[in-house]
Amino acid sequence: MTMTVWQGVFTIVAVAVGTMATRFLPFIIFPESKEPPRFINYLGSVLPYAMTGLLVVYALRNTPILTGSHGVPELIACAVIVLLHWWKRNMLLSIAGGTIVYMLLVQLVFS
Predict the structure, then answer these.
(1) Which H/E stretch holds residue 24?
(2) Are 109 and 73 in contact (CB under 8 A)?
(3) Is the pLDDT assigned to residue 1 strictly greater than 90?
(4) Where, by residue number, does the polypeptide cross the bilayer (predicted)?
(5) Which SS3 state, helix, strand or coil, does residue 49 take?
(6) What is the pLDDT of residues 15-42, one digit of tens each?
(7) Residues with Cβ within 8 Å of residue 3, at least 6 apart in sequence
(8) Nearest partner of 64 among 55, 72, 54, judged by Cα
């Protein structure tokens, strides 16, 4: 399926407007001089942990625990992520280290 030029232009404009709206709207609704509502502060404190939990569940949802390596590479990689984060408190290092360990395990050890 091919888009016409005008469909492509409209799509790009719609994506640009949507992106700009989601970036600028919080600053317009909650200016720096005004205290945000307590509910917004509450969401800001709990949503990062909720999203992390959702990402963990999403990443491990299809882990085969009854066949193959029984989820051992995934479990080792998760342990490496937790240990690296506990040690260095650096999210980028934790995620990169866990990903590297997982890829090495899957490619070299559990192949």
Answers:
(1) helix 5-29
(2) yes
(3) no
(4) 6-27, 39-59, 65-84, 91-110
(5) helix
(6) 999 999 999 999 999 999 999 999 999 9
(7) 11
(8) 72
Residue 95's CB is within 10 A of a number of other CB atoms, namely: 13
What DSSP character marks residue 105? Answer: I
107 vs 111: CA distance, rounded Å: 5
CA distance 108 to 111: 6
Rounded Cα distance between 2 and 61, Å, is 35
Q: How far is CA 105 from CA 9, 17, 18, in A?
A: 45, 43, 40
Q: How many CA atoms does the CB half-sphere of 32 hold within 13 Å? A: 0
Q: How far apart are CA 50 and CA 57, in angstroms?
A: 11
Per-residue tokens: 18: 């949507």
